[in-house]
Write a structure and sequence with these properties.
Chain lengths: 106, 120
């Protein structure tokens, strides 16, 4: 089955840039979405279609892709950004989520 | 703004059927796909399947033999049935709206989730 790999954890000081990667076979040929999930809450879409921000998502969130690795970048990270982040792509007609990355802002 | 609300029993006996309903308000259920996603405690999100408003479905292969997703457009509801549950099926179950086009779809709205425990 198709798998997406994310680092389990990323730490960043407040105000700095956080980068979370997501890699998978032939991910370069697929669209990647990113979701933020704060403790005890439902996921929230923060990046769609590789790099598009939905309405209401701060512009410090950005998405990019290089080869088979997608990256979520948070510029000027704030304490409120501390959360789990999941990448997601489709393997033909099956949606696949990455294992999630816990972002700690300290 | 569309809102999704999951409901159903929070406790299911092993080997029985888990049944949940997602009620959609603030928008029509038509012209969209609707998915169920689950998350075991402390673990990652897992997609279960989706249905469109016409009733066409697609399920994750590992659950395909046990899962049914239904849609009731008259009630603006999507339902999930998962049979022969075990403790491994204990999770928070989310319903989510699917947007985008073929091969470019994403989950833009989520319910608050329903915790389901599997225990005798």
């Amino acid at each position: 089955s198709y798998e997406l790999s994310q680092p389990p954890s990323v730490s960043v000081p407040p105000g700095q840039t956080a980068s979370i990667t997501c890699s998978g076979d032939k991910l370069g040929d697929k669209y990647t979405s990113w979701y933020q999930q704060k403790a005890g809450q439902s996921p929230v879409l923060v990046i769609q279609e590789n790099r598009r921000r939905p309405s209401g998502i701060p512009d410090r969130f950005s998405g990019s892709k290089s080869g088979n690795t997608a990256t979520l970048t948070i510029s000027g990270t704030q304490p409120v950004d501390e959360a789990d982040y999941y990448c997601q792509a489709w393997d033909t007609t099956t949606a696949v989520f990455g294992g999630g990355t816990k972002l700690t802002v300290l | 703004q569309v809102q999704l609300q999951e409901s159903g029993p929070g406790l299911v006996d092993p080997s029985e059927t888990l049944s949940l309903t997602c009620t959609v308000s603030g928008g029509s259920i038509t012209n969209y796909y609707w998915s169920w996603v689950r998350q075991p405690p402390g673990k990652a999100l897992e997609w279960i399947g989706y249905i469109d408003y016409r009733g066409n479905t697609n399920y994750i292969p590992s659950l395909k033999d046990r899962v049914i997703i239904l849609v009731d457009t008259s009630k603006n509801e999507v339902s999930l049935k998962l049979g022969s549950v075990t403790v491994a099926d204990a999770a928070v179950y989310y319903c989510a709206r699917v947007r985008g086009s073929t091969n470019n779809q994403y989950f833009d709205s989520w319910g608050q989730g329903k915790l389901v425990i599997v225990s005798p």
